Amino acid sequence: MSREPAENLKSSSYSIHAGSGSAIEGLDKPGSVVVRLCLPLLNEGRLIIADNYYTGIALARYLKDRHTDLCGTLRKNKVNLPKDIIQKKLKRGDVVAKQMDSFVTVLKWHDKRDVLMISTCHGKEMTDVTSWRGQSKKPNMVMDYNDAKKGIDVADQLSCYHSPLRKSMTWYKKVAYDLIFQTAIVNTKVIFEEATGSSISVLDVQEAMIRHWLGDVVMKKQPARISTLPSTSSERHALTQIPRRDGKLVRRRCVICYANKKAEGNPLLAKQVNTECLKCKKTFCLKCFNEAH
């Protein structure tokens, strides 16, 4: 593994794991990834939150020298960790911590299981919290980590909805799809909701962006699902989603599919859809709608 001097660092906002690459002097590869991604943010007194794959004593020391703090979960097989903390047996609610180099704190707390943490800006202070189990104490280090990490978890959850990724795709196509149809979509949703104060689904954002890229031709053929349609759209035949009932999708049988299946003696096999014609107020699947209009 080659080593790269710190003065030759180049920042990156997106990193693709290729199985090889250089590491920064004094750091392993995961720690080097953190530094490269956060290079423009160093020397500003910021706090970096990372999970147990990236954290370590060496990374904490490096960032502290760059006036940046680190907080995150920690793997017990990382090098230079205090063995008395790693091997300590704890009961639920117990906590033990040790400070290294006067600024790196390694903490172990037992909740449902052992939680190992590292931080350069926390001690072993605890805060009273209330949960379904009642009153308990939780380390401030854990609370700050959870508060920062939950944004990433929510973004990952939102990006997996209606994902266009498929196992058969080439890897570089997956990268492009992730940026355009997942990361950008979630960012657009967040910005829209903060700017307007109204809620919008991930699917609505995807459809609005695709329709914008494809232009007016698609807009004339089929209106968007977003509720901000012009009032004149109800005066022409157009396929739209049936209004939800108590927040749940409403599904009905396509009228043409039902008639065809009824003639065959199997009306219950008719396709159920959640779309209807704005003008006819009848339920259609896409195929039958195009044939009827």
Counting structural domains, the number is: 3
Uncertain segments are 223-234
Helix amount, in percent?
Answer: 25-40%
β content, as a range? Answer: 15-25%
Overall geometry: elongated
Q: In angstroms, what separates the terminal alpha carbons?
A: 65 Å
The major β-sheet equals: 5 strands, mixed
Give the helices and strands as they follow along the chain.
EEHEHEHEEEEEHHHHEEHEEH
Mean pLDDT score, rounded? 85
Number of helices: 9
- The secondary-structure class comes to alpha+beta
Instruction: Tell me the Rg in angstroms.
Output: 27 Å
- Strand arrangement, major sheet: 3-4-7-6-5
Total number of beta strands: 13
Organism: Euphydryas editha (Edith's checkerspot)
Protein name: PiggyBac transposable element-derived protein domain-containing protein
Domain PiggyBac transposable element-derived protein: 27-187
InterPro entries: PGBD
Structural summary, described in words:
This protein is α+β, with helices and mostly antiparallel strands and 293 residues long. The chain folds into 3 domains: 3-154, no CATH class; 161-228, no CATH class; 232-292, no CATH class. The protein has 9 helices and 13 strands. It has helices at residues 29-37, 57-65, 83-86, 140-160, 171-196, 202-214, 216-221, 255-264, 286-292, and strands spanning 3-4, 23-24, 47-50, 69-73, 95-100, 104-110, 114-119, 126-131, 134-139, 239-241, 252-253, 272-273, 275-277. The strands form 5 sheets. The chain has a 5-stranded mixed sheet with strand order 3-4-7-6-5, sandwiched between helices. Helix 4 (140-160) packs across helix 5. The radius of gyration is 27 Å and the shape is elongated. The model is unreliable at 223-234 (pLDDT under 50). Residues 27-187 form the PiggyBac transposable element-derived protein domain.
